[in-house]
Amino acid sequence: MLKGKKVLLGVCGSIAAYKAASLVRLLTKQGAEVQVIMTSNATQFITPLTLSTLSNKPVLTQYTEKDSGTWNNHVHLGLWADLLLIAPASANSLAKLANGLCDNLLSAVYLSARCPVYLAPAMDLDMWAHPATQRNIMLLKERKNRVIPPGTGDLASGLSGEGRLAEPEDIVAFLENDLASRDKPLPLAGKKALITAGPTYEAIDPVRFIGNHSSGKMGFALAEALRQAGAEVVLVSGPTHLETPTGVERVQVTSAREMLTACLLHFENADITVMSAAVADYTPERISKVKIKKKENQFTLNLIKTTDILATLGAKKTDKQLLAGFALETDNELKNALTKLKIKHLDFIVLNSMQDEGAGFAGDQNKITIIDRNEKQLAFPLKSKKEVAQDICNFIIAISQSND
User: Fold this and answer.
1) 212 assigned to active site
2) pLDDT tens digit string along 24-63?
3) In this structure, which of 81, 89, 162, 378 has its CB flanked by the most CB atoms within 10 Å?
4) SS3 sequence, the chain?
């Protein structure tokens, strides 16, 4: 999809700017013609000579070239490009673009561009999570800019979390998938999906919690399948070490209450919601502020019910929204799944049993039965969780197309 494309690559001031070298190489390898534009801060992290050598074009940093007086016409550059990719996009540059500030060549080209614009943020986790940055991201998305979600992992500050630049290979894959969907719309293009995954941890004291064995693999695979089908995916995840799928926006939570808050925030705008997280049914009535010492032979912990997130969303859903849940059962599987399907106002439920050999929380396989609102059952054999996710995605596509 990138062969013959004219790509403007904007590089901003970020430690992740070094990855621009690999990005240029990958883009040119795909047959793209790449013109690099760097902010002055970006040149402190990687030299223009490096990117010029890899792109076979002089790197542009200013409106005019000091030696020759040549004007780098931002309007012509904006018209020349088939797409504008800004990677890394710093918090500072995102703020400028969101608010229409124009104090350098890159921001002027952005305001002049008539092509699709892709932004790959890179910053420390607190900067990324800051309300000002999130507001800017929201504004940029509303203006039809495509945001390539940052990855989660070790950061230059020494902290670990969300905010690192997506890997160059993932950025190129995102571009190719998005361009393909523009030429031939993917089945879920234009749809917004909300997925939950993983366990929740309910704190007892500062060091202990009540949890479960959910790995999050099923939900993460489903988020990836829906994204590849064209949906814009928000993944609300409990504690897990899994990497965020390319192009998926991840919201990290710990407790059932935090997951409820995140789901309520995103549910209203979701066309498709699938709740695959293993949310705790009970949470400690009180959380000790200090570590509870081992003293007595018996210890009693008072628990209270958590809010049923799926039922809460079911009560709020509209006829235009698709809502689904999972039922992991140990006994009376079908009866319990049908009860949940009805009382929680679901469009379908995915039943899997702890009795199925080879299936379960921590493994890479699952065996499911999809039950729709009319109680029609569609059973599948034991498969990898990625294959199961694709089966569920295909079911969602079929429902979405029948409703359109």
Assistant:
1) yes
2) 999 999 999 999 999 999 999 999 999 999 999 999 998 8
3) 89
4) CCCCCEEEEEECCCHHHHHHHHHHHHHHHCCCEEEEEECCCHHHCCCHHHHHHHHCCCCECCCECCCCCCECCHHHHHHHCCEEEEEEECHHHHHHHHHCCCCCHHHHHHHHCCCCEEEEECCCHHHHHCHHHHHHHHHHHHCCCEECCCEEEECCCCCEEEEECCCHHHHHHHHHHHHHHHHCCCCCCCCEEEEEECECCEECCCCCEECCCCCCHHHHHHHHHHHHCCCEEEEEECCCCCCCCCCCEEEECCCHHHHHHHHHHHHCCCCEEEECCECCCEEECCCCCCCCCCCCCCCCCCEEECCCHHHHHHHHCCCCCEEEEEEEECCCHHHHHHHHHHHCCCCEEEEEECCCCCCCCCCCEECCEEEECCCCEEECCCEEHHHHHHHHHHHHHHHHHHHC
Once rounded to an integer, what is the mean pLDDT over residues 359-388?
86
Q: Is residue 1 part of a domain?
A: no
Looking at residue 281, which CATH number applies to its domain? 3.40.50.10300
Mean of pLDDT values over 363-386: 90
Q: Are residues 276 and 388 in the same domain?
A: yes
pLDDT band at 333 (very low <50, low <70, confident <90, very high): confident
Global confidence as pTM: 0.67
Q: Choose, from 41, 72, 92, 212, the residue flagged as catalytic.
A: 212
